Amino acid sequence: MLLAALAVFVVTLVLVVWQPRGLGIGWTALAGAAVALGLGVVHAGDVPTVVGIVWNATLTFVALVLISLLLDESGFFSWAALHVARWGRGRGRALFAAVVLLGAVVAALFANDGAALILTPIVVRIVLALRFPPAATLAFVMATGFVADSASVPLVVSNLVNIVTADHFGIGFTRYAAVMLPVGLVSVAASLVVLLLYFRRAIPRRYETEALPRPATAIEDPVVFRAGWIVLGLLLVGYLAADPLGVPLSAVAGAAAVALLAVAARRPAVLFRRSSSRGAAGTSPAGTDGPAGPGAAGRRIEVGRVVREAPWQIVLFSVGMYLVVYGLRNQGLTDELARLLGFFGEHGVLAAALGTGLVVAVLASVMNNLPTVLIAALAVSAVGASGPVHDAMVYASVIGADLGPKITPIGSLATLLWLHVLGRKGIHIGWGRYFRTGIVLTVPVLLVTLAALAGLLAAR
């Protein structure tokens, strides 16, 4: 049965990565789950267990991506990126650092996929406007994609795997942030240092800020833009209040997404009357590129299209893929992993953190981070450790699943989509080149972050 479970997992993963034409990742994973059920690798009674593990994480993730897409349509991220580009004051390395830090903030608040897939095209437009050479463009693009994952450590909502792990072990938003926010800051700092060192020769010394458009011209829908700030503030308050009230994060993120959708779906003729009258009065004539020009007059966001573009397939994928993974657990694979993690745990907090994090990172780079994090969570539970050693294993598994995928292109679905987006923009990164860069960037940041986690837990 173990061989059957492994075969179903491998074939399902290959098809998910390959994505045969006409099949989304969700339907492919569900097909794998159906085969696993048919072979008896998993049982009907496992279905509600798996759904109970993944429903909150996947719905939270979908809601956050919806919010990200709406804000992107309003010009929110382009506006922020243009401000950041100006903060560099013509210095290439300052611009590089600012872009990395912007990516870190976006990843922490909007999840890693949103940071990689939304910010990358914006960064590409900026470096092309600045007429950077291809090597510099590649440096900025790789940095944006890398920090999207390395900065997805600090909050529960920063990565889908964070939510899955936190739900499995009953870790609330505040408790998680108390540990992982400082660790996440270390990860971002280490990422910035490693990226600057690695790409130092490719980053231009100077650039002309005059080539950049004014940030105000990026705002496409000022009403959604302004509402976005309010929604983000309320979203943070909701996260903090969710723990004591026992409210799932998906309800908080879902309410925020619905609120922003309602604003985006309003009647423009009513809400833009003031903008139109200002233009008519000559404050900022129509046809100019100022904040009250065409952008501020409001390009209506196609709400239906945004909703359709949300990653609904990830819901089906989570249920289907995790059922396949649960079959590996049923056949004893997680018990073997638990023995290995238990060995690390016998040697203290540092060994538990480094050992667990590195093993999970390798597994995530080979078998994708989403199935890996469930296997890791089940294995850590089977170890039966307690105290700081248990905490080290739990949080190290998150770090490994967050950073490990950057080693290979197949480590996460977001990376595959990111490479596809770049290819459509004429930027081609081969898998061999990606691996050579990914492993050099990831390993030192992973080790420093795991060491910071061990030091924090040992000091508590």
UniProtKB/TrEMBL annotation:
<feature type="transmembrane region" description="Helical">
    <location>
        <begin position="310"/>
        <end position="328"/>
    </location>
</feature>
<keyword id="KW-0812">Transmembrane</keyword>
<feature type="region of interest" description="Disordered">
    <location>
        <begin position="276"/>
        <end position="297"/>
    </location>
</feature>
<dbReference type="GO" id="GO:0046685">
    <property type="term" value="P:response to arsenic-containing substance"/>
</dbReference>
<dbReference type="GO" id="GO:0042960">
    <property type="term" value="F:antimonite secondary active transmembrane transporter activity"/>
</dbReference>
<feature type="transmembrane region" description="Helical">
    <location>
        <begin position="176"/>
        <end position="199"/>
    </location>
</feature>
<feature type="transmembrane region" description="Helical">
    <location>
        <begin position="403"/>
        <end position="422"/>
    </location>
</feature>
<dbReference type="InterPro" id="IPR000802">
    <property type="entry name" value="Arsenical_pump_ArsB"/>
</dbReference>
<feature type="transmembrane region" description="Helical">
    <location>
        <begin position="348"/>
        <end position="366"/>
    </location>
</feature>
<feature type="transmembrane region" description="Helical">
    <location>
        <begin position="434"/>
        <end position="459"/>
    </location>
</feature>
<keyword id="KW-0059">Arsenical resistance</keyword>
<dbReference type="GO" id="GO:0008490">
    <property type="term" value="F:arsenite secondary active transmembrane transporter activity"/>
</dbReference>
<feature type="transmembrane region" description="Helical">
    <location>
        <begin position="223"/>
        <end position="241"/>
    </location>
</feature>
<feature type="compositionally biased region" description="Low complexity">
    <location>
        <begin position="276"/>
        <end position="289"/>
    </location>
</feature>
<keyword id="KW-1133">Transmembrane helix</keyword>
<comment type="similarity">
    <text>Belongs to the ArsB family.</text>
</comment>
<feature type="transmembrane region" description="Helical">
    <location>
        <begin position="247"/>
        <end position="265"/>
    </location>
</feature>
<feature type="transmembrane region" description="Helical">
    <location>
        <begin position="373"/>
        <end position="397"/>
    </location>
</feature>
<feature type="transmembrane region" description="Helical">
    <location>
        <begin position="52"/>
        <end position="71"/>
    </location>
</feature>
<keyword id="KW-0472">Membrane</keyword>
<feature type="transmembrane region" description="Helical">
    <location>
        <begin position="92"/>
        <end position="110"/>
    </location>
</feature>
<dbReference type="Pfam" id="PF02040">
    <property type="entry name" value="ArsB"/>
</dbReference>
<keyword id="KW-1003">Cell membrane</keyword>
<dbReference type="GO" id="GO:0005886">
    <property type="term" value="C:plasma membrane"/>
</dbReference>
<protein>
    <submittedName>
        <fullName>Arsenical pump membrane protein</fullName>
    </submittedName>
</protein>
